[in-house]
Amino acid sequence: MASTNQSPFYQRAEQEFHEATTDEERIACLEVMMKEVPKHKSSENMRKNLTNRYKKLKASVAKQKKSGKSSQQGIKKADMQCVLAGFPNTGKSQLFTLLTNQEAKISPHEFTTYKPQLGTFKFEEAQIQIIDQPSFPNHSKNLVNSTDTILLLVESLDQIKKAEEFLYRSKAKIILIFNKSDLLNENEKRKVKANLKSKHKKLDSVLFSSINPKKEDIEKLKKKIFETFPIIRVYTKEPKKEATKEPMIMKPGSTLKDAAEKILKGLSRKIKRARVWGPSSKFGGQVIGIDHKLKDKDVVEFQVR
Ligand SMILES: Nc1nc2c(ncn2[C@@H]2O[C@H](COP(=O)(O)OP(=O)(O)OP(=O)(O)O)[C@@H](O)[C@H]2O)c(=O)[nH]1
Ligand SMILES: [Mg+2]
Questions:
Q1: Which ligand ends up closest to the CA of 117?
Q2: Pocket of ligand 1, candidates 87, 89, 184: which has the most ligand atoms within 8 Å of its Cβ, to mutate?
Q3: 225: Cβ below 6 Å to ligand 1?
Q4: How far is the CA of 155 from the centre of ligand 2 (A)?
């Protein structure tokens, strides 16, 4: 498929398509490609080709879901990733389902989850990857040691100290989620809160319940998770077009060059002109050079050769 004269967004999606390790990722890439491919007659074959591939993948994913098999093999780490961890039955899979709307095996028996499961949820249009996994001590050491953020679920105070032996090697930020708070009366809740404040004041903690949670409590939790990631959000646009709804996730201090290279390797050399709106601009539409430092919520417009 000739794609050299496609938009940078198309090319990036195509690149990601080839690097993808799951069908879900491939579908997401194809969606972008189908949106970006020109609508004129000359690209009709290309559009058909994309649509066919899309339909086949969709059907194959539906079939895998039905048979209970997951296409998940290796997990490719996303820009923002968090991992659920904790002792058996603390409600990890239930919370996973609540955040992602994806099915997971949930039961009152221990070790129901026997292998990692990948999902995503959105916070203000930004994708956050979340991974459910087996309980301590059957958890994945690799995930715990390599992720950015751990959501440590407990259902009793003594589990906090006991969890340390499984987490001490990890550099991840930890959010302590004291789950099943619906089983506590007001007095017990107060005691738990007081204990968290005095004995675990260094831990970012929250009382939570996955049974009939309020919408705002779910949103608060998502925000808390989002805020653990040291990132900035950059929206990109092409001239005369709207900015992308979904931001690019970049490290703080990233430059225009970094952003262009993230869209597509080599793109920074092809930029003819770039403008920026938002926190890093002196005024809206400021023309910027390749070394311009971007800030959270900037909108960048590229014109490429
Ligand atoms: N009351 C109450 N029950 C909950 C809550 N969250 C989960 N549960 C229940 O606790 C049990 C265990 O939930 P899971 O999500 O399977 O727990 P897990 O941590 O994934 O456990 P394993 O994967 O089996 O190790 C299930 O019966 C859930 O319905 C909660 O907030 N309140
Ligand atoms: Mg589970």
A1: 2
A2: 89
A3: no
A4: 14
Query: Are 104 and 29 part of one and the same domain?
Result: no
In a domain, 75, yes or no: no
The reply to whether 119 and 181 lie within a common domain is yes
The secondary structure of residue 182, as a DSSP letter, is G
* Greatest Cα-to-Cα distance within the chain, rounded to the nearest angstrom: 70
Ligand 2 center–CA 112 separation, angstroms: 5
Residue 201: inside a domain: yes
* Res 77: pLDDT: 83
Rounded to two decimals, the pTM is 0.77
- Predicted confidence at residue 72, as pLDDT, reads 44
94 ligand 1 Cβ < 6 A: yes
| CA-based nearest residue to 149, from 167, 124, 135, 163 | 167
- Per-residue pLDDT at 4: 61
Shared domain for 106 and 38, answered yes or no, is no
Residue ranges, the chain, pLDDT below 70: 1-4, 67-74
- How many Cβ atoms from other residues are within 10 Å of residue 226's Cβ? 19
